[in-house]
Design a protein that fits this description.
Elements: H1 21-33, H2 38-56, E1 62-66, H3 70-84, E2 89-93, H4 102-113, E3 120-121, H5 124-132, E4 139-143, H6 155-169, E5 175-179, E6 206-210, H7 222-225, E7 228-232, E8 248-250, E9 274-278, H8 284-296, E10 301-307, H9 311-317, E11 323-327, H10 330-337, E12 342-347, H11 355-366, E13 370-374, H12 376-379, H13 385-394, E14 400-403, H14 406-412, H15 414-418, H16 422-434, E15 437-440, E16 446-448, E17 454-456, H17 469-487, H18 491-509, H19 515-530
Parallel strand pairs: 1-2, 1-4, 2-3, 4-5, 5-6, 6-7, 8-17, 9-10, 9-12, 10-11, 12-13, 13-14, 14-15
Antiparallel strand pairs: 15-16, 16-17
Helix pairs in contact: 2-3, 2-4, 3-4, 5-6, 8-17, 8-19, 10-11, 11-13, 17-18, 17-19, 18-19
Length: 534
């Protein structure tokens, strides 16, 4: 996938690229090797955090918690700059000052000598003082560990975070600022580090990170613990991105807008793709929702392949512009797909978990057309995922997109789902294992390609948690993918675009959303995208 331009994603503070913890370390190392002093970067980082704090709060008491590494070094800068501006600052150090190294040790000395600051040991006395203090409620600056933490918080650090959480719940803290990432979180997975899921972490009101966001800033549950996220400049050149092999991005039109299928004067319905949606016998509304979404996505024609037993229902209730074809058995379905103009197939919404659904999926993949497999189309292979993956990999002529939510993912990829690594890593591994683009759905939907590229959705509103929403998304993907087969949109970009448009429509509509409203709002989404065209 082409790298997006360095332009903001859905949140104006976030750039398109997401860096892993290791990539961010390489970016820092690259800058230092190019002649930028590490102390200069640390000074810039600390001052950037102070600037963010000044924009959010008026002068008041601040408690800075410094860890033993570079995150603590940023904290020393923050404490010094705030003190010089007249803010009352208490600084607590986790560990021994004599064991500080490198730039962190330099900044600690500047705090002591330049700002005449005290270095108070972070131990039980801090917790007792904070809990029983008669002084004004403080702002706490968490500069303990940041994104580089690779083990659960223990001993004093864990007890400190637990105390802060209690006081936060009791409204005894004015606010919490996390430097880089709230301590206790894994920067790559977005999960709290802990044995058996029992990890603890800071719950920040404001998180200030540097250069680019990390996965934890946009993945759940960490995203909910970061509060407001601000990505600030500390003097690293944007050109560094090109040397890092970045393949993870925040979902925005920058990732796929250049590939959107726009009709022109020579377009007609046959040039805009023909999507086939396999209809179920009982839950007929699911296929109808998908069909309408595929049409709203721009597909020139959409046909519902309706079982004979339910043909009357589909014929009477499908939208007037949707075609309905009676399908009595697998042979009828294969004959329907024999029309070369039908170039994208969606199977799963309302299909039912059965051998018949499984056979439809295998027939669709064998037709070498673009396929979207959703819901029961995935569940039909819960006991034989290898059969599905083999069929996907044999379909070399067109892309396949799988759209599991958490439960479906666990059934289709049980070993991956139980392993460590988090949602982003799991989606990537699932895409490699299956040979398909995987849309791992949720409030932090991850779209992953077999080559390792991944896009994370950040602006899906809670009202999308409604019956039929997934059916609409599947139809949107199929509609864009079908047009791609007619003119150029690949599965990864089609899936990412559909996920963003789905969320954007829900954002536009607002509270009270039901699945039908998403498709009805899509023309407004298209109108907004049209304004972005060059």
């Amino acid at each position: 996938m082409p790298r997006p331009k360095n332009t903001p994603g859905p949140a104006p503070e976030l750039f398109a690229e997401i860096l892993s913890v290791a990539q961010m370390a390489r970016a820092d190392a690259h800058a230092i090797a190019s002649g930028v002093a590490g102390s200069k970067l640390m000074e810039a980082a600390g001052r950037a955090v102070v600037a963010a704090m000044l924009s959010k709060w008026k002068k008041r008491r601040v408690v800075v918690l410094c860890g033993p590494g570079n995150n603590g070094g940023d904290g020393f800068v923050i404490a010094r700059v705030l003190k010089q501006k007249g803010w009352p600052v208490d600084l607590y150090l986790l560990g021994d000052q004599a064991k500080l190294k490198g730039d962190a040790a330099k900044m600690a000395m500047r705090w002591v000598k330049t700002a005449r600051g005290k270095m108070i040991p972070l131990d039980g006395s801090f917790m007792a003082e904070l809990k029983h203090s008669k002084r004004p409620k403080p702002i706490i600056v968490d500069a303990l560990f940041g994104a580089g933490l690779d083990r659960p918080l223990k001993a004093v650090a864990k007890r400190t975070v637990e105390t802060i959480s209690r006081l936060q719940a009791e409204n005894e803290i004015e606010g919490i600022v996390a430097v880089d990432l709230p301590s206790g979180l894994d920067g790559d997975s977005g999960e709290a580090l802990g044995d058996g899921g029992g990890g603890v972490s800071i719950n920040a009101d404001l998180t200030v990170t540097f250069f680019r966001a990390k996965p934890a800033h946009v993945l759940l549950p960490a995203r909910m613990l970061c509060g407001e996220v601000r990505v600030v400049d500390i003097g690293l050149a944007d050109e560094v991105i090109n040397s890092l092999g970045v393949n993870t991005f925040i979902n925005s039109p920058d990732c796929w807008a250049r590939d959107l299928p726009w009709p022109d004067e020579n377009s007609h319905k046959y040039t805009r793709g023909h999507v086939v949606v396999a209809g179920g016998e009982v839950m007929t509304g699911a296929a109808r929702l998908s069909a309408l979404a595929a049409r709203r996505a721009g597909a020139g024609l959409v046909t519902i392949a309706a079982p004979i037993s339910a043909f009357g229902i589909y014929a009477a209730s499908a939208d007037p512009g949707t075609l309905v074809a009676p399908v009595g058995d697998l042979a009828d379905f294969k004959k329907l797909l024999g029309d070369a103009r039908k170039n994208a197939i969606l199977i799963g919404p309302g299909a039912g978990v059965s051998t018949e659904t499984r056979d439809l999926v295998l027939a669709a993949l064998k037709s070498e057309k673009a396929c979207v497999i959703d819901a029961d189309g995935l569940n039909a292979f819960a006991k034989s995922p290898a059969q599905l993956f083999k069929a996907i990999k044999a379909n070399k002529s067109a892309d396949t997109v799988l759209t599991p939510h958490g439960g479906e993912f666990a059934r289709l990829f049980p070993k991956i789902a139980k392993s460590a690594g988090g949602k982003l890593d799991h989606a990537r591994r699932a895409a490699r294992a299956s040979g398909a683009v995987v849309v791992f759905k949720g409030a932090d939907t991850v779209i992953a390609a077999p080559d390792g590229s991944a896009i994370i959705e950040t602006h899906s509103p809670p009202q999308l948690a409604t019956a039929g929403s997934g059916d609409v998304l599947a139809g949107l993907i199929a509609g864009l993918l079908g047009q791609g087969q007619a003119g150029g949109m690949a599965g990864f970009e089609a899936a990412a675009a559909a996920v963003w448009m789905h969320a954007e429509a829900a954002q536009m509509f607002g509270p009270g959303l039901i699945a039908e409203d998403i498709s009805q709002t899509l023309p407004n989404v298209w109108a907004g995208l049209a304004k972005m065209r060059p």
